[in-house]
C-alpha cells in the first residue's frame, strides 16, 4: 500500500491554513470521519473520503484523501496522522512533504476496493491482534473509524496481558 | 176586362224597365262573382330573373303552365329588399333562380308545397312561412332549373309574397308585418338548422323546422302569450323531438315567437292546429288545418245567406212577372202589390241575413272535439354523446345541448359499435351515438355508436401512474445506489 509508484505531483500551494482552535484540540482517540478535512502542519490538503482496513487484523491500512486542489484521490498512511480534533485530521508533515509522498503513493483505483462486512469484522475485534496497535480499530460505524491515540495505545498494550491472562 | 188607362201604361212600362234593370244587375253580379272566383284560382308563376329563356321554359314545364297563368319575374334585388334588416345577403351571389307557381285554394283546404331542386329551404319551411304570413290555403310549387345546383330557395319565398301583392287569394289574410315575421322566422329556422347540421345533427334544417312548427302550433292552439310560456313550450317540444336549439339562437327564437303571439293573428284554417304529411323524399308537404270545420261553417253560413238573398230576389222577380203578365189589376194595385211583394222580400232577405249573422262560426263546435285518430309518429333520430354508463336508460347529450337526456331502451334494441354488433352495455361515456327513437314511446330502437380514437397522449395520460412510477423507481434506485455506492470503510481486493 505504501509502495511508491507514479510521478503525480499534486499542487497543494495556496491551501487554507490550519485553524488555531483546531490545532489546540486533541481527541483522546484518532477518529476518521467521512468528509473530515485533512490538514498538514502548514495548511489544508484535502478531505477523507474512505478508510482502507485489513479485516483480518482489524486495522487501518490507508486513508483515501481527496485533494482539495485537484479533486484527485490519493492514498496516505495512517501513520502520518498526528491527531484528530473534532472532525479534522492533522498530519504530522508539511504540505510539501505530503506532496512528495502523494507523488510516490500508488494510484487510486476504485475497482480495487471492496465493501467490508463491518459487523462481522467488529465481532472479532477482541480476538484481533494488530501488529501495529496504533492502527487497530477500536470502534467503527457507517461513517467513521476510531483508532487509539499514542496514549491510548500504551494503555491498550498494558491491558492486553490481563486480557490474555483471562483468556488463558 | 179592365180598361187600361195612360197612367197604368206608364207604370207598366216603368215596372218592366225596373225589372229589366234588376235582371241585368243579377246577371252582372253573378258574372262578377264567377269572374272573381276564377281569379282566385288563377295560378301566378314567378320566375327568378337569372334563369335563361331555356331554363324559364323548363320551369314553366315543371309548373305545367298554360296560357291563362300570370307570369312575373322576381329579381335578386327583390329578395334583398324583402330581407332588409333580417338577413345580410351581401355575401350571397346576386342570382335569382328559384321560381314558384302559386295556386289559390278554397278556404280550409290547407297548404300543399312541393319543391324541386331546392337545396336549403325545405317544403316544411315554406309551409311554415306561408302559415305565419297568413297564406293558409294554397298550392305552391317551388323549383329551380335542373342544371343549377345549390339553389337555396330564398328568391322563391320573395316571389310568393310578390305574388300576393299582385293577386291575393281570397282565402288568405296576410299583411306586410306578417310577411316580414315569416321571413324572420324562416331565416332564424335556417340558421338553427344549419347550426344543428354543423354540430352533427342529421337533417338539421328539417329538425329545426319541426321544432319551430310544433312550438308554433302549441302557441296557436293553446293561445300562449309571453316569453316564459313560449320558452316552456319550446323546451317541451325540444324534449319531445329530441332536438336542442343551440343556445345562441334559442333566445332569438323565443323572442320571435313571442312577437308572433303578440300579433293577434287570425290563424284561420290553422286556428285549431294542423296536421302535416311529408313524402319520403321530403320534397312535398301537405298541411291541413284543423280549423277547417270552422271555416267550412263560415262558408255554410255565407252560402245560406246567399241562398236567402236569391230566394228573396226570385220572389221579387216572380211577383213582378206576375204583375206584368196579369195586367188586369189597376196600375195602383199592381204597384201596391209589387211594393208589398218587394217589402216582404226585403223582410225575408233581412231575416235571412240575420240568420246568416246568427250562424257565426264561433257557435260551431270546434273540430278538435271530434275524436280523430292520432297520427302514428314516425321513428326519428338523435345524435350525441353518451353521458353516462348505460343501464335501463341511455343518457345522451345531444349536439349543441349542455344537459343530457335520458332515453328508455327498448327490449329489442340493436346496437353497433364502430360497425360491429355490440351490446348497449358495452357503450361507455364519450362514445358518439346515433339513436333511432320510437316516435311515440321515445324508446331507443337502435344505436349506432362509434368510439373516438384515442391519441397517444390521451393513452399516456391514462397511464400517468405507471409513467410516474417508472420515473420515480429508477430515480430512487439510483439515489440509493449513489448513496450506498461509496462505503466509507473499504478493504483492498486481492488479485
Quick overview:
In chain A, 23% of the residues lie in helices and 32% in strands.
Describe this structure in words.
Chain A has helices at 20-24, 95-104, 118-123, 150-167; strands at 29-33, 37-40, 43-54, 59-67, 73-76, 81-85, 88-91, 113-115, 139-140, 144-148. Chain A is α+β, with helices and mostly antiparallel strands and 168 residues long. In chain A, strands 5-4-3-2-7-6 form a six-stranded mixed β-sheet. In chain A, 31% of the residues are buried. The model of chain A is unreliable at 1-11 and 161-168 (pLDDT under 50). Chain B has helices at 6-40, 53-63, 76-82, 123-133, 154-166, 176-198, 204-222, 227-241, 247-262, 292-326, 331-358, 456-462, 464-484; strands at residues 43-48, 70-74, 99-104, 111-116, 138-143, 274-278, 284-289, 380-386, 393-398, 405-417, 420-422, 432-437, 444-450, 489-492. In chain B, helix 7 (204-222) crosses helix 8 (227-241). Chain A binds chain B through residues 1, 34, 49-55, 61-62, 64, 111-116, 118, 140, 142-145, and chain B through 486-493. Strand 3 (43-54) of chain A pairs parallel with strand 14 (489-492) of chain B, so a sheet runs across the interface.
Order of helices and strands of chain A: HEEEEEEEHEHEEH
Instruction: Label the structural class of chain B.
Output: alpha+beta
The backbone outline of chain B, from C-alpha atoms, is elongated
* Number of E-state strands of chain A: 10
Query: Rg of chain B, please?
Result: 36 Å
Tell me the total number of β-strands of chain B: 14
The gyration radius over C-alpha positions of chain A equals: 16 Å
Average predicted local confidence, pLDDT of chain B: 74
The strand order across the widest sheet of chain A is: 5-4-3-2-7-6
Helix content of chain A: 10-25%
Amino acid at each position: 500500500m505504501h509502495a511508491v509508484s507514479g510521478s503525480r505531483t499534486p499542487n497543494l500551494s495556496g491551501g487554507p491554513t490550519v485553524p488555531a482552535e483546531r490545532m489546540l484540540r486533541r481527541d483522546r482517540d484518532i477518529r476518521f470521519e467521512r468528509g473530515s478535512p485533512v490538514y498538514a502542519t502548514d495548511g489544508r490538503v484535502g478531505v477523507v473520503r474512505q478508510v482502507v482496513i485489513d479485516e483480518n487484523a482489524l486495522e487501518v491500512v490507508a486513508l483515501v484523501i481527496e485533494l482539495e486542489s485537484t479533486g484527485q484521490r490519493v492514498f496516505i498512511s495512517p501513520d502520518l496522522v498526528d491527531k484528530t480534533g473534532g472532525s479534522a485530521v492533522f498530519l504530522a508533515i508539511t504540505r510539501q512533504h505530503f506532496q512528495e509522498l502523494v507523488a510516490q503513493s500508488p494510484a487510486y483505483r476504485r475497482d480495487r476496493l471492496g465493501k467490508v462486512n463491518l459487523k462481522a469484522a467488529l465481532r472479532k475485534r477482541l480476538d484481533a491482534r494488530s501488529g501495529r496497535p496504533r492502527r487497530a480499530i477500536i470502534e467503527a460505524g457507517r461513517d467513521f473509524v476510531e483508532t487509539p491515540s499514542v496514549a491510548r495505545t500504551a494503555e491498550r498494550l498494558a491491558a492486553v496481558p490481563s486480557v490474555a491472562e483471562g483468556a488463558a | 176586362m179592365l180598361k187600361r188607362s195612360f197612367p197604368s201604361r206608364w207604370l207598366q212600362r216603368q215596372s218592366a224597365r225596373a225589372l229589366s234593370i234588376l235582371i241585368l244587375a243579377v246577371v252582372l253580379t253573378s258574372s262578377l262573382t264567377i269572374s272573381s272566383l276564377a281569379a282566385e284560382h288563377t295560378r301566378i308563376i314567378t320566375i327568378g330573373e337569372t334563369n335563361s329563356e331555356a331554363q324559364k321554359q323548363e320551369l314553366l314545364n315543371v309548373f305545367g303552365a298554360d296560357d291563362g297563368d300570370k307570369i312575373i319575374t322576381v329579381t335578386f334585388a327583390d329578395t334583398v329588399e324583402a330581407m332588409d334588416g333580417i338577413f345580410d345577403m351581401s355575401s350571397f351571389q346576386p342570382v335569382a333562380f328559384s321560381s314558384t307557381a302559386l295556386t289559390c285554394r278554397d278556404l280550409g283546404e290547407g297548404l300543399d308545397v312541393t319543391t324541386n331542386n331546392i337545396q336549403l329551404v325545405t317544403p316544411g319551411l315554406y309551409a311554415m312561412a306561408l302559415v305565419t304570413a297568413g297564406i293558409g290555403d294554397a298550392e305552391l310549387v317551388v323549383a329551380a332549373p335542373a342544371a343549377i345546383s345549390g339553389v337555396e330557395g330564398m328568391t322563391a319565398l320573395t316571389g310568393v309574397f310578390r305574388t300576393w301583392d299582385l293577386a291575393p287569394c281570397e282565402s288568405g289574410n296576410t299583411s306586410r308585418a306578417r310577411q316580414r315575421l315569416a321571413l324572420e322566422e324562416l331565416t332564424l329556422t335556417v340558421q338553427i338548422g344549419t347550426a344543428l347540421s354543423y354540430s352533427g345533427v342529421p337533417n338539421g334544417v328539417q329538425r329545426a323546422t319541426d321544432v319551430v312548427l310544433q312550438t308554433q302550433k302549441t302557441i296557436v292552439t293553446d293561445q300562449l302569450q309571453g316569453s316564459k310560456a313560449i320558452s316552456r313550450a319550446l323546451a317541451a317540444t325540444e324534449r319531445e323531438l329530441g332536438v336542442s336549439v343551440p343556445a345562441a339562437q334559442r333566445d332569438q327564437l323565443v323572442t320571435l315567437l313571442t312577437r308572433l303571439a303578440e300579433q293577434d293573428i287570425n290563424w284561420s284554417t290553422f286556428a285549431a292546429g294542423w296536421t302535416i304529411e311529408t313524402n319520403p323524399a321530403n320534397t312535398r308537404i301537405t298541411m291541413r288545418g284543423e280549423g277547417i270545420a270552422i271555416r267550412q261553417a263560415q262558408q255554410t253560413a255565407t252560402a245560406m245567406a246567399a241562398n236567402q238573398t236569391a230566394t228573396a230576389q226570385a220572389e221579387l222577380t216572380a211577383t213582378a212577372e206576375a204583375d206584368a203578365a196579369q195586367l188586369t189589376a189597376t196600375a195602383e194595385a199592381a204597384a201596391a202589390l209589387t211594393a208589398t211583394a218587394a217589402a216582404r222580400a226585403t223582410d225575408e232577405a233581412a231575416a235571412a241575413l240575420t240568420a246568416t249573422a246568427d250562424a257565426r262560426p264561433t257557435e260551431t263546435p270546434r273540430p278538435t272535439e271530434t275524436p280523430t285518430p292520432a297520427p302514428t309518429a314516425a321513428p326519428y333520430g338523435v345524435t350525441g354523446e353518451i353521458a353516462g354508463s348505460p343501464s335501463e336508460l341511455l343518457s345522451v347529450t345531444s349536439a349543441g345541448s349542455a344537459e343530457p337526456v335520458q332515453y328508455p331502451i327498448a327490449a329489442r334494441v340493436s346496437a353497433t359499435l364502430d360497425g360491429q354488433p355490440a351490446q348497449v352495455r358495452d357503450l361507455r361515456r364519450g362514445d358518439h351515438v346515433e339513436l333511432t327513437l320510437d316516435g311515440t314511446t321515445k324508446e331507443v330502437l337502435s344505436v349506432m355508436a362509434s368510439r373516438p380514437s384515442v391519441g397517444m397522449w390521451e393513452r399516456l395520460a391514462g397511464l400517468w401512474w405507471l409513467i410516474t412510477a417508472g420515473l420515480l423507481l429508477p430515480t430512487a434506485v439510483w439515489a440509493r445506489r449513489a448513496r450506498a455506492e461509496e462505503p466509507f470503510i473499504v478493504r483492498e481486493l486481492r488479485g
